[in-house]
Fold this sequence. Notes:
Blueprint: E1 8-25, E2 29-36, E3 41-46, E4 50-55, E5 61-65, E6 70-88, E7 101-104, H1 106-117, H2 124-145, H3 162-175, H4 182-189, H5 193-204, H6 208-226, H7 231-237, H8 243-254, H9 258-264
Antiparallel strand pairs: 1-6, 2-5, 2-6, 3-4, 3-6, 5-7
Amino acid sequence: MTSPAEIDFSFISQDINGSFDCTFRQPHHLVLVHLAGNLEAKEYELEKAGSLRIQTPRIGSAWVLPAEQHGSGNAIGRTTAQYCQLTVPHKAFGSRNLLPTIGPDPLLHQLVARIGSVRDRDDVPARLLREALTETVLLHLADRYGTPVPQLPVSSAAELDQTIKAAIVEFLADSLDSKISLQEMAGLARLPVRTFVKAFTDAFHTTPHQYVLDQRIARAKTLLSTTTLPITEISTTTGFSSPSHLATTFKKRVGVTPNQYRQIS
Length: 265
């Protein structure tokens, strides 16, 4: 699954004098958010979805262009158009795709604008804020524009037997270096997510989120005390989005930073 670090936000300023045309066939999802500029119209023609057009785009207008689609675009006006282009890996939403969509999206506009306001800062608060906002963008895109989640057959008993518990433990141990979704975990038990969370909590005496975090910290502690791997590599191996994310979470749970833990272990 995709981590926030894999999402690219490009803030673009483009002078348009009459008409501007482009063609594309991108392997990733593209999401464009109009930030400024008085365009008369903007249109995309997608091979599999027909025409997506906004007459007189407004600030906050968004175009969602799914991956693996061939198409063309046209902007009309005499202005300097400013927009944010989000490039999202095809794998970001698992087996789900995005639906080609065009229209106003005030929430996405606010999230993108806030990310843009701290994009040139490299201090820890700014990096953590960008990660949190990017994660929110991913959730918003999946919820608003994602194709429906496939419905799995529901288990008759809302509890996890030993076989399912063992499968979940093995799956999580093998997946700590990637993004783990509740949908994937619930799929192993063939339960709806809400039912699975309760069943998991009853079986493991902690929530799925806390369990995964505990396992990631435990693996980080092992790597810190038994290897000379750099902190950057350990953060990747344990599924944290960045070294600063690992450091913040590690200190909160263990009481010392990863470097301090390595020195005393």
